[in-house]
Amino acid sequence: MRLQRAENCRKSLWDGLRRLSRTILDYIICIYLVLMLAVFPFYNEAGYDHIGTDKSTFFCRLGVSTGKILVIPLVLCLIAESVIFIRRHFAGQRFIWRKSALQKQQMRISPTDIFALVYCAALILSYACTDYKEEALWGAKGWNMGLLPQLMLICIYFLVSRFWTPRKWIFYVVLPASGAVFLMGCVNRFGIYSFGLEFVNAGYISTIGNQNWYCGYAVSVVFAGVVLLWLGERIKVRQRALLMVYIFVGYLSLVLQGSDSGLAALAVVMLVMFFLSAGEAERMLVFWQEMVLLWGGCLGLFMVRSLAPGRINFIGGFMEKFTCGPVSITMTVVSVIALILVWTDRRKGKYREKLFRILAKTAVWGSVAAVLGVLLLAVVNTLCPGILGRLSENTLFTFNTAWGSSRGATWSAGWKCFAAQDALHKLAGVGPDCMWSYINSEASPEIYAYVKELFSSQRLTNAHNEWLTILVDTGILGLVGYGGMMVCGMGELMKKRKENPIAAACGFCLLAYTVNNIFSFQQSMGVGTVFVIFGMGKAFLFIPVPEISV
Predict the structure, then answer these.
(1) Which 3-state string (H, E, C) describes 422-477?
(2) Which of 23, 174, 175, 257 is the most exposed place for a label (fewest CB within 10 A)?
(3) Angle at which helices 501-516 and 260-277 pack, to 10 degrees?
(4) How confident is the prediction for the chain on average, in pLDDT?
């Protein structure tokens, strides 16, 4: 009996240590999430002049400080978990954790996790093989996307998904904070700068900085609200009204911010939502409500442009097309008619499912065909200039250094950097965030001369395409790891949309971020936020929404 009591005491000791350490980890991660989602977007030290550097410094310092605090409880937790596992294994007992959906999920190793570990290994290999170790450790000055910040992203994903207990109140933090950022972004476009930030110009917006940085942040959070309204079934009337206000301001912000990549992300997400709504009347009703919010906002902006020309301090690209009369009026009318049609049918207890399935498939395949058609015409016109007649005058149909706001130049430079590598560096890359170090070292005089000719005194720290930059910096292995992690993560989260709308909302944020970054780049504000949301989505994944801690 004494031996049995001693054994039970030891079991209770290790189980208590495990529970205590996990509780400490949970609360520390909660504080980190609040700082990342509610403080980070507003942090700056000296206005817009060094706001990008300020953001990256905040991200790195917060990550290092949190890591130091987490070390002891994390080690104790891993020791306790290991001892419990070994004791049960050698005792011949079936190894079962506490029977909660969260801990069962935390034990599972998914394809997303495997690709994340592959990316982690690729980063370490890339650093080991680089000739620019000093630059590779923290990354290019002002950007700080080197080895340690990249490893922080992987740690964020695993720690939040494994040791954070999902809580719905986190959205009461992220949505108001991001909503305030969006609102300031909107009023900034009308020349109103509430905080009197220094070095203001039309290229900077809200509390984030450059419009590309802003866009990377905005697409990482706004679709959480969009999808929660779209999929939510237990949302109260007041919450629904607040979500609609949030979405309206978020849509306006995306249209006004000025970067075409954000509007591309918006278009893709709305297209996916339309396709997934086709089989359900309730989903289709909310989808058209959100379309009315989007196009009603664009119509309002058209009216402002008409009545007060020059009032908006930045107009260009797809923003101009979204807010022009023919597009905004037509799409608003279509959205209102579709909303009325679905609403009246729903009141009569019917739904035109076949019609909307046909429309959804037509929209998806039509969009795919349009993109492929544009690419084909661009290739033909580039190889045989003038063959398209008047269309040849459109810059969209000619691949050159000016194509896509100089994306032709940056993508070309990125590909040249990759192509110039030997077999080892094609696999491992030139080093985390070391693209400019490689170019500037004149390892390839032809590439150096090419970049200097196109960009004069500016540094080309990335290819303005996240995945191409990762290919250059961390090689094929890094691209496989990062790409696999993001694609599998999206699929894993979005396919659970009926069972868990919150996880799905996080998956749509990943989708929007990925589409945006086809034309953009990693920076601490956007990628730091999206990895926090990524980890949150995984934590929410298999937890029934009513059971989530509040």
Answers:
(1) CHHHHHHCCCCCCHHHHHHCCCCHHHHHHHHHHHCCCCCCCCCCHHHHHHHHHHHH
(2) 23
(3) 140
(4) 88
State the residue for tokens 């394809």.
111
Query: HEC states along 147-186?
Result: HHHHHHHHHHHHHHHHHCCCEHHHHHHHHHHHHHHHHHHH
Q: What percent of the chain has pLDDT over 70?
A: 91
Q: What are 224's two structure tokens?
A: 């959480």
Give the torsion through C-alpha atoms of 291, 293, 298, 302, to 10 deg: 130
- Is residue 502 within 8 A of residue 168, CB to CB? The reply is yes
Q: What angle do CA 367, 290, 332 make, to 5 degrees?
A: 70
Collect all residues with Cβ–Cβ distance below 8 Å to 520 and sequence separation of at least 6. 212, 215, 216, 259, 261, 464, 465, 466, 526
Radius of gyration over alpha carbons of the chain, in Å? 25
Q: Per-residue pLDDT averaged across 297-316, rounded?
A: 88
pLDDT-derived band at 46, boundaries 50, 70, 90: confident
Q: Can you give the pLDDT at residue 310?
A: 81
CA 150, chain centre distance (Å)? 15
| Structure-token pair, residue 303 | 């009216």
Query: HEC profile for 96-128?
Result: CCCCCHHHHHHHCCCHHHHHHHHHHHHHHHHHH
